[in-house]
């Protein structure tokens, strides 16, 4: 068979992830400066505790607005940073929000209590009963405490995703209550029409981003493309591929390595949205996902009927060739994590080496496709089998397979333990971090 070698792609001049991250930091810094300006312009109370408490409240609300932008699923940010990293940042800023608002409540309560000569708890109760908007703020803070508690790692692991997600939705109630409290009684806003207009604009952008990314764009895309199942192909006893077709898929903008949240509109599945990567590079006519049966959702895919309507949210993810830094690549897959790797191999330019790690030969999903594709593209393919211990991808083993590993982009996808082990190995081998590309797709749901 004649091999076809793609021409090498030049290294990317700019790093899209760095550009996007810097842009986010810059936007946050500018808004922090604007908040400080309007706060200072409104003047300071005589009680230093009240001053500090008000400032914490303003910055807590700013962090809350920033959180909304992080999970708005805006395409420009998602393609450059990735949903997994944006979700992780959202989680950590959530804890920052919790402590900031706690400081706001404590300083305000002690500040007003000092002037009234009563205890802070009594003063907080009195403010809630007599001052407009304070009761709404107390309720909002209580909701945020509950959401923060269920988002802690211990609780999150013990809650079903649907339960956690339902509780998390109450954050939007807290947002509305906190916003109305601030514009009603906040000294910064009651003293300045310009500050009030800025605050409305800030929250309009934050809430508008959520509405655009999580509601308007998915509805518009599904109305435009009319997704439906065109074929269901069993790949093995517990792995199935689902082919999805639709209108104008060449305008969808999907890339190899990305994933969708798939919702198959049957009586028993319409309410479930599952993240599955594309297992073939989009060709403008069909999208393909391949999944292993690990739960009721994925196990039921093999029973889908041709013609079933599909509601697909996406494409999502930064696990694409957009972030390449080198002309040659190493693609490392573990188990069913081969699906985005197989799609990337189809799309990637330059010489590639593929390392596929599985327990046994029978676990090598899509291996025949991967082998044929590697031959056609002039790529090297290594199937690594065996139990997790000893580590078949330890530094000495990986450098034997890929001697020039430090000069390649590395794309990695697989089970979390395998990914963590390989990431440590890449660090030990001196592979620069900008050349390491991975996403933890479990966060996408």
UniProtKB/TrEMBL annotation:
Q: Which terms in the Gene Ontology molecular function aspect does this entry carry?
A: 2 iron, 2 sulfur cluster binding; flavin adenine dinucleotide binding; metal ion binding; oxidoreductase activity
Give the protein's cofactors.
Answer: FAD
Pfam families (UniProt xref) = Ferric_reduct, NAD_binding_1
GO cellular component terms, semicolon-separated: membrane
Keyword field contains Iron = yes
- Residues crossing the lipid bilayer are 22-40, 46-71, 92-113, 133-155, 167-185, 197-217
Protein localization: Membrane
InterPro entries given in the database record: FAD-bd_FR_type, Fe3_Rdtase_TM_dom, FNR_nucleotide-bd, MRET, OxRdtase_FAD/NAD-bd, Riboflavin_synthase-like_b-brl
The record, for PANTHER family, names: 1,2-PHENYLACETYL-COA EPOXIDASE, SUBUNIT E, NADH OXIDOREDUCTASE HCR
Q: Which UniProt keywords apply?
A: 2Fe-2S, FAD, Flavoprotein, Iron, Iron-sulfur, Membrane, Metal-binding, Oxidoreductase, Transmembrane, Transmembrane helix
Q: Which residues form the FAD-binding FR-type domain?
A: 222-322
Q: What is this protein called?
A: Oxidoreductase
Membrane-related topology note: Multi-pass membrane protein
Which Gene3D superfamilies does the annotation name? Nucleotide-binding domain of ferredoxin-NADP reductase (FNR) module, Translation factors
Q: What is the lineage of its organism?
A: Bacteria, Bacillati, Actinomycetota, Actinomycetes, Kitasatosporales
């Amino acid at each position: 068979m004649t091999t076809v070698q793609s021409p090498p792609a030049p290294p990317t001049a700019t790093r899209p992830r760095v550009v996007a991250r810097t842009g986010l930091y810059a936007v946050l810094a500018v808004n922090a400066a604007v908040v400080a300006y309007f706060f200072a312009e409104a003047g300071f109370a005589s009680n230093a505790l009240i001053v500090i408490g008000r400032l914490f409240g303003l910055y807590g609300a700013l962090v809350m607005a920033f959180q909304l932008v992080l999970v708005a699923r805006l395409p420009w940010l998602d393609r450059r940073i990735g949903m997994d990293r944006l979700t992780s940042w959202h989680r950590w800023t959530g804890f920052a929000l919790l402590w900031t608002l706690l400081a706001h409540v404590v300083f305000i309560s002690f500040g007003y209590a000092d002037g009234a000569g009563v205890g802070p708890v009594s003063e907080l109760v009195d403010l809630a009963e007599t001052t407009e908007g304070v009761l709404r703020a107390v309720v909002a803070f209580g909701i945020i405490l509950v959401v923060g508690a269920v988002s802690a790692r211990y609780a999150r692991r013990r809650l079903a995703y649907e339960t956690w997600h339902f509780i998390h939705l109450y954050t939007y109630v807290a947002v509305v209550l906190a916003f109305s409290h601030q514009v009603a009684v906040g000294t910064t806003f009651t003293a300045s029409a310009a500050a009030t207009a800025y605050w409305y604009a800030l929250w309009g952008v934050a809430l508008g981003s959520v509405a655009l990314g999580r509601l308007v764009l998915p509805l518009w895309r599904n109305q435009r493309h009319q997704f439906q199942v065109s074929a269901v192909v069993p790949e093995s006893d517990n792995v199935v591929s689902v082919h999805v077709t639709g209108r104008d898929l060449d305008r969808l903008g999907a890339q190899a390595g990305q994933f969708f949240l798939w919702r198959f509109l049957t009586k028993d599945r319409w309410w479930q949205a599952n993240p599955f990567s594309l297992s073939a590079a989009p060709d403008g006519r069909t999208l393909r996902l391949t999944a292993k049966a690990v739960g009721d959702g994925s196990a039921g895919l093999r029973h889908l009927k041709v013609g079933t309507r599909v509601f697909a949210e996406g494409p999502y993810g930064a696990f694409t060739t957009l972030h390449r830094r080198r002309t040659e690549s190493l693609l490392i897959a573990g188990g069913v994590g081969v699906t985005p790797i197989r799609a990337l191999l189809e799309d990637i330019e330059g010489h590639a080496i593929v390392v596929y790690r599985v327990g046994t030969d029978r676990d090598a999903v899509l291996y025949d496709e991967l082998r044929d594709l590697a031959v056609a593209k002039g790529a090297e393919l290594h199937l690594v089998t065996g139990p997790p211990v000893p580590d078949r991808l330890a530094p000495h083993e990986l450098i034997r397979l890929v001697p020039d590993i430090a000069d390649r982009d590395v794309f990695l996808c697989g089970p979390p333990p395998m990914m963590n082990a390989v990431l440590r190995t890449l660090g030990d081998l001196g592979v620069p971090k900008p050349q390491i590309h991975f996403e933890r797709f479990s966060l996408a749901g």
